[in-house]
Amino acid sequence: MTKKSYILALDQGTTSSRAIIFSEKGEFIASAAETYRQIYPHDGWVEHEAQAIWQTTINSARAVLARAQLAANEILALGISNQRETTIVWDKDTGNAIYNAIVWQDRRTAKFCEKLQQDANIVASVHAKTGLLLDPYFSASKIAWLLDNVDGAREKAEAGQLCFGTVDSFLLWHLTGGKEFATDATNASRTLLFNIVEQCWDDELLALFNIPKQLLPEVKNSADNFGVTNAKHFGAEIAINALIGDQQAALVGQACFAKGMMKATYGTGGFVMVNTGAKPVWSKHKMLTTLAYRINHQSCYALEGSIFMAGATMQWLRDELHLLTDVASSQALAQSLVGENSVYLVPAFTGLGAPHWQPEARGAIVGLNRDSGIKEIVNAALASVAYQTQDLLMAMAQDGIKTTQLRVDGGMVVNDWLLQFLADILALTIERPKITETSALGAALLAGLQHGLFSSLEQAAQSWQLQASYRPTMSAASRQRHYQGWLAALQRVKD
Ligand SMILES: Nc1ncnc2c1ncn2[C@@H]1O[C@H](COP(=O)(O)OP(=O)(O)O)[C@@H](O)[C@H]1O
Ligand SMILES: O=P(O)(O)OC[C@H](O)CO
């Protein structure tokens, strides 16, 4: 009989679907990825075709198996990490989505959320139950929009004919041929409908958003038994043993298991997350309290700050302004700037995320003079990632979170200039691991844990290895000047 020695991780991200095979020790074996179309129907609206999410996921999974020359029966377990909050409602009979996926960045429900925010009791109650804020970022208002705007959707939902899921549930449904309708506690914790203390869907929140309970998936542990893939997909069944939101997966992949350990993932957006242990920390400064992972019904919590535009700003410079031929060239351009940059770019293209939460804010480039050119703008775009991170760390510090080290990952961290500037602005040591596909790794480690490959998360974490670290070299005065310039630019956008 063939020995099953590999783990397949599917990492469904905002701009691409990736599949990665790891060895049973968590070593990287092979990867495949496919990008798909971003749809922007109106200002502040962002959609994906649900079918494209599914098709690119299955294509990349098949491609990686072929690349690694492995058959499905050599795969021990499969884990899924996914873009969170993105909302899909599909028909139980056909599996077809009733509308495009409404992406986490989408702001169409800003007015609706604003209305709810006017009631201080509602705001307090939502925060106490979910750890979140009433912002269009999260799934609940997106589900309500779908039920109210797609013909016949509400009637069908009430009749139990529809399913709501974040991307993990949608993929699970399709992988298992419609047999499994579930999510994990981390993904549930991003919907605004899940009580993170009691660990259940909350009837009051469902009533607040007018969402029928029968629409919702079962909530399981992040490492759990989620059924098996239908044999028609890969030629044999594969056990599905982990579902986890991609930022939480990155925390696991970065081995941030001790209280106080922090990671930042810089892909389309930027997400800073700190492990706060077995008890939730309730932020007074608009950070999100969220589930880091749930294993054997034991919850570990985290505090998170979300930046909506990180790598996406570089894509905008490339695709809309045509200032870059490719995003990688941003490094040399940023580096070529001599002296301090007077230009600041505030990338509030889809509003401002944490700690500001201003969905109606829009972007700006300020401080331009006659000498400003491409390199100043590109430098400012990269620098905005560091400044936004500093905004988050300042808010977290006010909540009592202090850290001396930050582990980074995501597509942007190949950019050495960015990581050095980050170390300088944050005055922290920045650590980049050997495997930067930490979301996929986190999902793989949890799937392996569920399968008994590792006796504990700590054992699984032994696969984490440092690739490079960046230490602050900027003077305190210069750091201060840089950051004050950012705060002034930010204030103009907020005003
Ligand atoms: N060398 C680079 N410098 C700056 N940004 C980069 C670089 N390489 C990739 N990126 C950015 O990283 C992002 C892709 O990261 P990834 O982790 O794949 O994103 P996601 O998971 O959100 O789809 C893109 O937005 C891209 O602009
Ligand atoms: O697809 P990513 O990696 O940009 O992650 C998206 C986040 O999960 C949104 O909350």
What does this protein structure show overall?
This protein is globular. By secondary structure, it is an alpha/beta fold. Helix content is 35%, strand content 22%. A 7-stranded mixed beta sheet has the order 16-17-15-14-20-21-22, with helices on both faces. Strands 3-2-1-5-13 form a 5-stranded mixed beta sheet, with helices on both faces. A two-stranded antiparallel sheet has the order 4-7. It has a domain at 6-246: Nucleotidyltransferase, domain 5 (2-Layer Sandwich). The protein has 17 helices and 22 strands. Adenosine-5'-diphosphate (ADP) binds at residues 13-16, 267-268, 311-312, 314-315, 327-328, 330-331, 410-412, 414-415. Residues 13-14, 83-85, 104, 245-247, 267-269, 306 line the site of SN-glycerol-3-phosphate.
CATH topology description of the domain at 6-246: Nucleotidyltransferase, domain 5
Mean pLDDT: 94
- The amount of beta strand, in percent, is 15-25%
Helix-strand makeup class? alpha/beta
Strand order of the largest sheet: 16-17-15-14-20-21-22
**CATH architecture label of the domain at 6-246:** 2-Layer Sandwich
Query: Termini separation (Å)?
Result: 67 Å
Number of helices: 17
Give the tally of β-strands.
Answer: 22
- What small molecules does the structure contain? adenosine-5'-diphosphate, SN-glycerol-3-phosphate
